């Protein structure tokens, strides 16, 4: 008989994190003597918060990102969670792109790298101080009164009519099919538009697309009060796309940056294309991923059943407890021997254990098999016999940007199909085996905790009903 490898019995699953415990702007970085930023500080690997409690080392953020986990805790599963559940996939998409960009920049051997000096911490602090000063000065200026509708109607059709602002280039990018903007995406499952570095090994597939992104980036610089940067800097075309996709206001995957952070990173990117120019954004994004998205993902992954199945399990647990209690009352009022009053304890153990496990998102039946329900977006695959085709279809699903450039999924075919799925099929949906050992260990621990609590409750109820005098009513 196999012995369960459990976590401590006082284990608690990760708490639900509504927002990061520490603001990215409060995270400090240190600068080495030669003026370079320590990689450990930039990547925020030292950041740990109370919200990450309950996550064993095999399921750590770094382990998932490095590909050291099995389904359903892989980086693709993490991406799917951020797309379909938390709806903040842009953070992970940008983070994965930045890791790849930083690696390619450091490995590049071209002469034009001299045109991309490092953006030091001193330069960053100076830029932020200048932005703060400008914002303070603007706050002291009394805002002009807006034109009332009545006055606007008077000047309508005259030379004094207020001109209508044209849609921004970012809006055009967001509404343009990504197939035309990123024709050479090569099926990248994590959706950042294709690379266009000046590393002499890649060529941009479409000059019109490059011009579109460059126009959008120049618009972002202009709105920030900056001049257009030098186009001959290495990786400039790629960074133009990143600005148009993630940083500028109205972009299809706009990151949740403050106005100060947005202006700071634009000033840095106007000066250089060095990875250190994105330090402010990376701090904010990685802080959110580590302290909010990752704990919530692990908490969500612990649930082995879909919401309908978990609700069914809760109802089943309550019903079992109620029937066992009714049986205990009937036996107490009858002339049956006292020993028979202990029989409902079996139902109490089953009911309480089922209810407690369901409260934590687990179905004990699925757990007994170490199975989980297939996610709704994984259910509807065109060709289930062709495994390579299945993986390709899942990659396209997790990409979420091949059609519109955004991470919206409301128009995907599986949404309507799953809504039309009847209740019974949802309760007994397709199952797959949980491959990740660390996740099975967490679920085993929660199941044992549920059993122990059930035995305590059943023992207490039995101790109440057995000593009672019999009613002898029948």
What does this protein look like?
InterPro entries: RGS_sf, RGS_subdomain_2. The protein is an all-alpha fold. It contains 20 helices and two strands. Strands 1-2 form a two-stranded antiparallel ribbon. It is elongated, with a radius of gyration of 29 Å. About 15% of the residues have low confidence.
Q: What fraction of the residues are assigned to beta strands by DSSP?
A: under 5%
Straight-line distance between termini:
46 Å
How many strands, what sense, and barrel or not for the largest sheet? 2 strands, antiparallel
- The radius of gyration computed from the alpha-carbon positions, rounded to a whole number of angstroms, is 29 Å
**Helix coverage percent:** 40-55%
- Flag low-confidence runs: 21-51, 175-187, 193-205, 382-387, 396-404
Helices, by number, come to 20
Shape: elongated
Structural class: mainly alpha
Summarize the helix and strand pattern as letters.
HHHHHHHHHHHHHHHEHHHHEH
Strand order of the largest sheet: 1-2
Number of strands: 2
Mean pLDDT: 78
Biased composition (Low complexity): 21-32
Region (Disordered): 20-55, 180-207
Protein name: RGS domain-containing protein
Keywords: Membrane, Transmembrane, Transmembrane helix
Jot down its keywords.
single chain, mainly alpha, two-stranded antiparallel sheet, 20 helices, 1% strand
What would a concise description of this structure say?
By secondary structure, the chain is mostly helical. The chain is 53% helix and 1% strand.
Strand and helix layout:
Elements: H1 39-42, H2 61-65, H3 75-86, H4 89-107, H5 121-140, H6 149-154, H7 169-175, H8 178-181, H9 207-223, H10 236-247, H11 259-271, H12 279-302, H13 307-333, H14 344-359, H15 364-368, E1 371-373, H16 376-379, H17 387-399, H18 413-420, H19 423-427, E2 431-433, H20 437-465
Helix pairs in contact: 3-4, 3-12, 3-17, 4-12, 5-11, 9-10, 13-14, 14-20
């Amino acid at each position: 008989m196999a012995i369960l490898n459990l976590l401590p019995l006082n284990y608690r699953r990760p708490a639900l994190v509504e927002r990061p415990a520490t603001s990215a702007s409060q995270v400090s970085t240190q600068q080495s003597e030669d003026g370079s930023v320590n990689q450990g500080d930039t990547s925020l690997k030292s950041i740990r918060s109370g919200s990450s409690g309950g996550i064993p080392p095999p399921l750590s953020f770094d382990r998932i990102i490095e590909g050291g986990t099995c389904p359903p805790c892989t980086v693709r599963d993490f991406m799917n969670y951020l797309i379909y559940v938390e709806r903040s996939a842009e953070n992970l998409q940008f983070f994965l792109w930045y890791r790849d960009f930083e690696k390619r920049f450091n490995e590049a051997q071209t002469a034009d790298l001299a045109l991309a000096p490092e953006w030091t911490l001193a330069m960053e602090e100076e830029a932020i101080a200048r932005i703060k000063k400008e914002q303070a000065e603007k706050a002291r200026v009394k805002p002009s009164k807006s034109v009332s509708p009545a006055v606007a109607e008077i000047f309508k059709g005259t030379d004094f009519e207020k001109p209508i602002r044209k849609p921004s280039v970012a809006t055009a990018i967001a509404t343009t099919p990504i197939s035309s903007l990123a024709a050479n995406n090569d099926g990248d499952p994590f959706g950042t538009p294709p690379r266009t570095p000046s590393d002499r090994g890649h060529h941009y597939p479409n000059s019109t697309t490059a011009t579109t992104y460059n126009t959008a980036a120049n618009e972002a610089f202009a709105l920030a009060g900056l001049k257009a940067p030098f186009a001959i800097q290495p990786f400039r075309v790629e960074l133009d796309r990143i600005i148009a996709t993630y940083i500028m206001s109205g972009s299809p995957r706009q990151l949740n940056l403050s106005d100060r952070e947005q202006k700071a990173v634009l000033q840095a990117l106007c000066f250089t294309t060095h990875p250190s120019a994105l330090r402010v954004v990376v701090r904010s994004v990685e802080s959110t991923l580590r302290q909010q998205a990752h704990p919530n993902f692990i908490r969500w992954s612990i649930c082995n059943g879909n919401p309908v199945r978990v609700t069914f399990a809760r109802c089943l647990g309550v019903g079992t407890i109620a029937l066992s209690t009714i049986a205990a009352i009937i036996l107490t009022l009858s002339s049956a021997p006292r020993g028979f009053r202990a029989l409902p304890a079996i139902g109490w153990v089953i009911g309480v254990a089922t209810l407690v496990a369901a409260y934590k998102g687990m179905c004990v039946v699925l757990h007994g098999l170490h199975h989980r329900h297939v996610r709704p977006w994984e259910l509807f695959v065109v060709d289930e016999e062709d495994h390579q085709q299945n993986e390709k279809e899942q990659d396209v699903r997790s990409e979420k940007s091949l059609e519109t450039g955004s991470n919206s999924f409301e128009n995907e075919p599986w949404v309507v199909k799953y809504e039309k799925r009847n209740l019974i099929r949802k309760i007994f949906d397709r199952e797959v085996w949980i491959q990740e050992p660390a996740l099975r260990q967490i679920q085993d621990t929660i199941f044992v905790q549920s059993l122990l609590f059930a035995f305590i409750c059943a023992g207490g109820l039995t101790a109440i009903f057995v000593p009672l005098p019999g009613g002898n009513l029948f």
